[in-house]
Structures are given as C-alpha cells and as structure tokens.
Amino acid sequence: MRTRQAAWGDIIELYLRFFSASAGGKKVLKRRDALQTQLIQGIFDLADRDGNGELTEKELIDFLDLHAKGSTACLTLSMSDDGRALFEQLDTNGDNQLSPLELRTSWKLLEKWDANKDGCISPEEVPYHFELVFTPGRSSPFSRFGFFNPRGSNAKKGQDLPLWFRKMDHNEDGVVSRREFLGSDEDFQRLDTNGDGLIDAKEARAADQWFRKNIAKGN
C-alpha cells in the first residue's frame, strides 16, 4: 500500500511541474500567469504568503509541505455496512474472490455461528457486520485538492516466497493446487505435508529450505 508521504510527494511534484510550465522555467510565478493554470490559480493567494502578487517556488513548496504535515493532525472514521453477507467473511485475504484454500477452511470460520449445533448455518445465525476503520489524517491526501486517490502499490504479496512457488501460483491466491503444480503427483504429495490438496506458503518455505540445505550438502 502506498504511504501517505509518497502520495503527498506525488502532489508536490505535480504542482511543481505546473508551476514550472506556467512560469516559463523561472522560480517566480506572477499572478497573471497563474490565472492560465486552474491548478495553481486556486491556491495562489493562499501560497503567496507575503502577498506581493508573486508566487515563488519556495512559497509553493512550503505551502504544500504544511498541508502534508497537517494531513496527519486529524483522525478519519469510515464505516461500511456488510449486512449478513457471507462472502466478505470467507474472503479472508480481501482479494474479492474465494480461493480453494478459503473454501476448504470456510467451516472453521462459520462453525462458531452454528448456535443450534445442527451442522448448518441458517440466515438468522449469520451475524450482522459493520466495519469501522480509523485512519490517521484524511482518508486521502488528494481529497483536499480534488484528486482521486492513487492506486496502491502493484508489488505482489508474498515476495519472500520461493520463486518456483510464485511462478506456479497462476491465480495468485497464495496456494498452489495440483493443476498449477508442474511436477509429478509424487512430488506434489511430498510437498503437501498436511494432505489438503494444496501447497501453502508454509509448506513452500519448508520445501525450499529442505532443497537448499540438501543442495549445500551436495545431495
């Protein structure tokens, strides 16, 4: 996930690009030139601290830095109403899809709701869910200036996992099924130590450590 500091760095860089273009590469932007750029025009008077009708690059940076620091001086509360939906409860990694592992372990999550112990979950037994999230600062540093929230980092989860495991995990659900596994049935069963039909992260790390240890010994 992108940090708040990184997002504000993008904002400052964007404003500086518009500032430079409007000022013709100079370090000072006059009011008449700022009127040609809506982005700068909206904050010109606020950023021009000495009120001389000219905005320097330093004044602009100081103004944006002040807002960046102020963005963490408040607390944002957001609430979502999940109702009695089961999907959000079973989607434990929050990727908006149910993986084979999540489906296989779903009863472990649902069993606690089985109040009458009949082995089934009725609609009345599914609890009503609200989610409250407290976030330091504003929900998005872009909201102050009317921008959309930037996308999070594209870095994939589990970069510490063995490369072979990440390559085989085509659907990126955090486990390798027999269909995804490129080795033999015997190799798959050897790695699937708990016999659930899936190679999870723990099993992959254990197998990788075993391989490295034996390769180092020359076996």
Descriptive account of the structure:
By secondary structure, this protein is of the alpha+beta class. It folds into 3 domains: 4-70, Recoverin, domain 1; 75-136, no CATH class; 163-217, Recoverin, domain 1 (Orthogonal Bundle), CATH 1.10.238. It contains 11 helices and 6 strands. Helix 1 runs antiparallel to helix 5. The two termini are 41 Å apart. The relative contact order is 0.11.
Topology:
Blueprint lengths: L3 H19 L5 E3 H4 L3 H4 L2 H4 L6 E3 H14 L4 E9 L3 H4 L9 H5 L1 H5 L18 E8 L26 H6 L7 E2 L7 H7 L6 E2 L1 H17 L2
Antiparallel strand pairs: 1-2, 3-4, 5-6
Which key features would you list for this structure?
219 residues, Recoverin, domain 1, two-stranded antiparallel ribbon
The domain count comes to 3
Largest sheet: 2 strands, antiparallel
The residue fraction in helices comes out at: 40-55%
* Cα distance spanning the termini: 41 Å
Low-confidence stretches: 140-156
Shape: elongated
Mean pLDDT score: 78
- The count of DSSP E runs of length 2 or more, i.e. the number of strands, is 6
The helix count comes to: 11
Task: Describe this structure in a few short sentences.
With 219 residues, the chain is an alpha+beta fold.
